[in-house]
Amino acid sequence: MKITVAGTGYVGLSMAVLLSQHHEVTAVDVIPEKVEKINSRKSPIQDEYIEKFMQEDLQGKRKLNLWATLDAKASYETADFVIVATPTNYDSKKNFFDTSAV
Predict the structure, then answer these.
(1) pLDDT at position 91, please?
(2) Which residue of 27, 31, 51, 69 is most buried, as measured by CB atoms within 10 A?
(3) Around Cβ 51, how many Cβ atoms within 10 Å?
(4) 3-state secondary structure of 24
């Protein structure tokens, strides 16, 4: 199955790494440095398990079918499923969720 995960923060990257053990996963982000790190199997966030899984993929101990890209349109067009894991920061002063990233 082809899955695209939009957003590579803690939630999105965790889902992408776990799902990529059994499915073809494309992680989409708007930050080139994050995309580059993921494709080099370096976690752009500090998380023990994500870092471990990526390191094990580099060592051949674990197979992650994971690729990151900036090209959201192409990724969405070829995906069987799309998971949106983008920030929805809450502004307590305005009582408002910022969903502009979605």
Answers:
(1) 81
(2) 27
(3) 15
(4) strand
DSSP string, 29-85: -S-HHHHHHHHTT--SS--HHHHHHHHHHHTTSS---EEEES-HHHHHHH-SEEEE-
Q: What is the pLDDT of residue 50?
A: 97
Cβ atoms within 10 Å of 55's Cβ, excluding its own: 14
Phi, psi angles (nearest 5°) of residue 81: -140, 145
Instruction: Give the chain's end-to-end CA distance (angstroms, integer).
Output: 23
Q: Nearest Cα to 1, choosing from 73, 85, 81?
A: 81
What's the pTM? 0.88
Q: Which two tokens stand for residue 21?
A: 């053990």
- According to the model, what pLDDT value does residue 51 have? 97
For 6, the token pair is 């939009």
Handedness of CA 65, 77, 38, 16 (dihedral sign): negative
